[in-house]
Amino acid sequence: MGDPSAARGRLHARRPRDDLLRPRGADGRGGRSARGADGATERRRPRHRRLRPGYDERRADARPVHRGRHVHRPNRRRDDAHRRYRLLHRLDVQTLDPVPVRHLGRGVRDEGRDREHGAEGGVDLGRARRPARDLSVAATRGAPTAQSGRVFVRRHRIAAVKLLATTNGGLESIAAAEICDLVDGDASVHHRGVLEFDADVEDVYELHYRSRTLHRLMAVVADGTVAELEDVYALTARSSIPDRLPNEEFGVVGTRHGSHEFTSVDVAERVGQATIDAYRDATGTRLPVDLDDPTVRLEAYLYDDRFTLAVDLTGESLHKRPYRICEHDAPVRATLAYSMLEIAGWTSDESLVDPMAGSATIPTEAALAATEAVPRPDLDPAFDALPGYDGERFRRLRDDHTEKSPTLDIEAREKRKRWRHCARVNREAAGVEDGFEIVEADAREASIDADCVVSNLPFGIRTGTDLRELYGAFVDRLREGDVGRLVALTTKPNLIPIEPTVRYDIPYGRLDAAIVVWEP
Ligand SMILES: C[S@@+](CC[C@H](N)C(=O)[O-])C[C@H]1O[C@@H](n2cnc3c(N)ncnc32)[C@H](O)[C@@H]1O
To answer: Could you tell me where the Basic residues compositional bias lies (predicted)?
Structure first.
């Protein structure tokens, strides 16, 4: 057997802890990367960030990053994919019309909300539908994947299923780019927070163990234009439902948007009746119904006159990462945290700091993405119960998936001891103890040098903090430091004294929030 280090590149010797007090040189990590005239990446000599006021190294409760175990491998193909992403984001912001805010009609379901930022796909109360837009221009076919760096040879696709995928509203372009990277899919917006694309069964498996931006996938069984409620019944009854469902308890969730003389409950009821009738006509069996905890969940969307019926493939939402053991008061949703890293264009060879990290969702997502760990290794997918899917094959593929061991330079800074403890608990649960440091630091005072600063800022509802003062002092530290780009999520973007280069408006529970991008 050959030397594994030779195959994986140079192993970094672990830096002694007191060595962290010295500035790191061109061959070390921690500085901001810069491009030379020949385009090669080199490390700029970083500033003495650990010796600056506000940064208390002795009180840092983190263990130093175990660099000995990690191997750093720059990934040019991955970098290319990120450059494409960045281009996409700029296009996205420039071409999408602002979303007019108006209240939705009666009967619209507020789907899957919880305390985390953003809503789980579905309906966004208080916002109107964003016009559907074909995002496929951004998705270069045959492109390398962002996460694996492997090049897709476009396989002959048997478009066995039309899929819907839910994601964070306002960040559909990020999810569409991921779908393109992972399975070469050409996704467009079905409605806010929901994408549609053609795929095959293998794609369903791959997305379920690799996607970091999606919440759930659904297979479309009926799609068409309707004028009245009975058209909903007729479309469902004519659909492929009898072939797609097992003889198991099912339930229907209706979501409606637009001006109709009936409610989403009426839609769900008509779909349910048509499903029972169609299944009985085809098989002679009456399907059992369970509205509380069905084995098979049907999603019925009526958006204006477009009716789409889909069967859930996922089960528990993919955003519910199993490492979230210790809950922050105001946690950011894991898929949103990962999307922010994508917006930043962060790559695993760049330094990353979250200066107000809370329970460290952003650093954890970064470390998991860099190691290519499966985000939901615990998932029992709903498609296991459906005809046409092979759950065993899915589990084999997932178990055979190999992780990487890059050297990482990620720091989670947090002022409060309670949340640093939470961050440590979650870091361990995620299995990325070596992936990032957890450090006590006050963002108003601590100096900051990093390629990327990605953070979910406090927004003041619970903290009562003077946000203008906090954001102002934090931005002063960014200006003084050596920072490549900032990506920040807040409900009060106007209090950040910067001119963002890009801004994504997203729902934040029932509030409006924005992700802003700034290059100091
Ligand atoms: C919105 S929360 C971040 C939540 C985190 N994204 C998560 O998922 O757990 C903002 C965090 O910033 C911290 N914070 C507030 N002011 C700070 C300061 N001046 N320096 C460092 N951290 C601060 C708060 O304690 C809180 O944990």
So the answer is: 65-76
